[in-house]
Amino acid sequence: MIGRDxxxxxxxxxxxxxxxxxxxxxSEPGSAKGGEAELVRRQYLxxxxxxxxxxxxxxxxxxxxxxxxxxxxxxxxASTRLYGYSADEAQGHLLEDLIIPAPMREGVIQxxxxxxxxxxxxxxxxxxxxxSSGELVPVFSHHVMLNEHTADPxxxxxxxxxxxxxxxxxxLDFATRFDRLTHLLNRHSFEEQLDLAxxxxxxxxxxxxxxxxxxxxxxxxxxxLGYEQGDQLLVELARRLNRxxxxxDILSRVSGDxxxxxxxGIHDSDDIPRLVRKMEExxxxxxxxxxRRCKLSACLGVAIFPGNGETAGELIRNxxxxxxxxxxxxxxxxxxxxxxxxxxxxxxxxxxxxxxRAVEAGELVLHYQPQVSAISxxxxxxxxxxxxxxxxxxxxxxxxxIPLAERSELIHRIGDWVLxxxxxxxxxxxxxxxxxxxxxxxxxxxxxxxxxxxxxxEACVERHGLGPRDIGIELTENVLIEADDDILAGLRRLHHxxxxxxxxxxxxxxxxxxxxxxxxxxxxxxxxxxxxxxxxQPEDRAIMEATVFIGHRLGLEVVxxxxxxxxxxxxxxxxxxxxxxxxxxxxxxxxxxxxxxxxGMVAGSGSSELSS
Length: 612
Ligand code: C2E
Ligand code: CA
Ligand code: CA
What we know:
By secondary structure, the protein is of the alpha/beta class. It has 24 helices and 20 strands. The longest helix is centred in the first third of the chain and has 24 residues, at 34-57. One calcium ion binds at residues 383, 442, 474, 504.
């Protein structure tokens, strides 16, 4: 850059010197007469014209010449465009009066003098000069002194307009620091600012409150009304949050429908609930979407400095944890981060690490719980239930580790293993001639969202030489309701090929019987809590009866889950459930125990009652 600058300056100096030598009116070059002189003169004029034309034609290169008093003697068109003065307007005026901003005036006059007197060059630099409108213009400015050691030194300035670059730079800077939709800080720059605010809190022994806000059911709003409306909602929410923000509060959209707000300078702990109430207020007024008024709510997670984290990253994470906990508690909930949450998080982290290793170390096994025919008492199907039996420590319940695995890709590895192992086992038992209909396996929400999962499932079944009657799947009601068209199409295809698909935990989700007919399912598993409460709770009993009735009308097989007592057994038989699963007959068992059972060597605790 310096080398190029130097060459450019030297070239410019030569060109300007040639031009200047001829500037005084009438003094055309050469006194020689005749053809030779005429030739020299023409050549010179041509070169001068070329240079002038060059200077004039550079739209972004503004050239100005100043005499030793800094009065304008030359001003090209680009200078007019850049600074707003025509050549006539500028001619004879002082440099500092035209384009030098007031705070720089003294310095410029001094630098010009130093150059003339001491030969101290003004280096090329990026500066902001003044337009006739008063606005500042960013330029890269070169300076050249001609006739330096004469009575009439002339300074030429060659300014390149940097507005476009600056604008592009600003835009880039904006894009890297701000969220494009709401124009709030993005997560990265929020963290930077939060760390600065925390440093200040430390100096002043003050507190800071961090609130993590997550709009309830935003995905559904987006789906129902479209992305544009969803975006509009986020913009409106950002506007509200911004509206009564103090100058020191820091606000950011960290992702999708999640906002974080930091309130520094809290000196009274009573202020904290007040701030949280203020955030709740923000959601209270209805949002206008497609000219309809929409009531919204949000869950809030709160973390406080000091106490809930030392760094911006830690505080945000902990407020996020509290927010997630609030989500579990329901809509519009507020949870403050505390030690218990922290410990739980730590526990989950460790468990997650161990689980990852457990998959590799082969610590997972499948147990199988029989489903018994309510009429014949025969074992018809088995439900495969995952067990984690670590080499060290007690077994871990799937109710604990499946939700954990669901938060990462680990669920897919685990799911693949369950599928593979169930198919292998089914094929092995068939080869051994054991009487058995099906093995049903559980699919979680995230598992069935994986593209190609149904093809993968079918391919695995086929690879083991099995058919649609050998392996079934169970999905919870909520998973079905949240399923998109692709998933439903995949399920329909399986259903069409004759695979058995059961709705698991029926009655615990949205619980609408009217949904049933829309789903490609073959069976309904009534949740354990109904079976448990039905003997004593008339409402549960009524719901159960209605469910069995409608299930049968829709041609579905009805399974009662969690039958533990004789009383419950009688009840579900009375209601005409088709299959019974529960500890009263069998607990989930390891494969060798199932083999003994199917080979007729052992009987379940309740079998004799049924067959009698
Ligand atoms: P689920 O699918 O509802 O499985 C039935 C659960 O009820 C099993 O718990 C079973 O042991 C238990 N159970 C069966 N009969 C009775 C009874 O009479 N009384 C009582 N109190 N409980 C009974 P488990 O094995 O602990 O599994 C818990 C959950 O973990 C399962 O609920 C299922 O959601 C999930 N899970 C288990 N294995 C897998 C798997 O391979 N993949 C996936 N995605 N989830 C699995
Ligand atoms: Ca199940
Ligand atoms: Ca279940």
